[in-house]
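S.,

Sequence below, as promised.
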Amino acid sequence: MTFFSPLNIGWLNGWIPIVFFYGVFFVLLRIVPKETVERLYDKTHWTNQQANLARIGLPFALVGIILVLFTPLKIGQPFFWFGLALFLLGLVGFVSSLHTFNITPLAEPVTDGLYNISRNPQWVAFALGIIGTSFMVGSWTVFLLFMVRVLMNHFRIMGEERALEIQYGDSYLEYKKSVPRYLLIF
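The prediction came back faster than expected:
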């Protein structure tokens, strides 16, 4: 891993996992019902502060993505394989949690599947995917940029949880008591 990897245009660059991950994401958004997509992006009960803080991570992620697009994959390096494992775990977790989210009736909070171990498995999986990508290209700079995005997502999650408390009341509050926000104790 280095802080400043040489940038170039190439076939074996970090664009491969980025395009694959976002390609899968966009295909999923196209095949799930419109109600599911609206439910995913509902910001009705967010505070202005939560929305503004969540936006801070976006430019960092964009710069990280641009760097990844022009950074060669470090195939053969141990950190590449570690990153690939994180990326694949994130991708599978993302697809699985989005499926569970999609099949849960709108009148109920989502509590099955990966939602049994995390109240936010889509975001945990997303974080694993982008962090894995930073290891695949072997860049601490990209890792740090993506970590800002991951940390700022916390404010997005706080807004989502506030909305879920309002929407589902006691059933969501009971769920919050038994399942950590991210994983294990968090």
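The chain is about 70% helix and 0% strand.

Coffee later?
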